[in-house]
Amino acid sequence: MEVRNKHKVDICFVPSENVRKELSRPYGILFKDVHKLIDYARGFSRVITVGDVVTRSLLEGGVVPFLSVIDGKTRRSVVMNESRYNLKVRNEPGLLRLSSMMVIRDVLQGRSPVSVFVEGEDDMFVIPAILFGHNDDLVVYGQPKAGAVGLENWEGSRWRVQDILSKFLVKLC
């Protein structure tokens, strides 16, 4: 009889160059004024933030995200401390781990607000936020050198994200 160690296998989704170009475009409403973003976000029962600056801006404006995802860095400079976050996931730069996506799915199926600290990079967490979020959730993410994007979740945005994700390369992590 052969005994095997049951290591957990993780799958990584890696965007090709064409997909990276697609991901660099803002989807949703681009906000350059944080006060307008805060006013807009107040109209939603659940707000999901992806990124350190947008999370901090909404919190300072009195909007508490149902889910916040940060990596403690802005343009690769450390800005936030991981100690105030409920969960921690690992996600290397330039890819999206399936295990991290499943954590986001579980949080979004729950009833309590949760904050997630990403060891690595949080940039692609908009994908699971849209895929697993509820209709009418607002997903807010930073758009480098431009502002913040507010994207209302609905079937159309979910379809768009599924289309983008289908173009990723899949490999073992």
Automatic annotation (TrEMBL):
Organism encoding this protein: Metallosphaera yellowstonensis MK1
Species classification: Archaea, Thermoproteota, Thermoprotei, Sulfolobales, Sulfolobaceae
Gene Ontology molecular function terms on file: GTP binding; kinase activity
Keywords: Coenzyme A biosynthesis, GTP-binding, Kinase, Nucleotide-binding, Transferase
Gene Ontology biological-process entries: coenzyme A biosynthetic process
Job of this protein: Catalyzes the GTP-dependent phosphorylation of the 3'-hydroxyl group of dephosphocoenzyme A to form coenzyme A (CoA).
Pathway note: Cofactor biosynthesis; coenzyme A biosynthesis
Enzyme Commission code: 2.7.1.237
Binding site for GTP: D52, V53, V54, D71, K73, D122
The organism's place on the tree of life at top rank: Archaea
Membership in a protein family: Belongs to the GTP-dependent DPCK family.
PANTHER family: GTP-DEPENDENT DEPHOSPHO-COA KINASE, UPF0218 PROTEIN TK1697
InterPro entries registered for this protein in UniProt: GTP-dep_dephospho-CoA_kin
Coiled-coil boundaries: none
Reactions it catalyzes: 3'-dephospho-CoA + GTP = GDP + CoA + H(+)
Protein name (record): GTP-dependent dephospho-CoA kinase
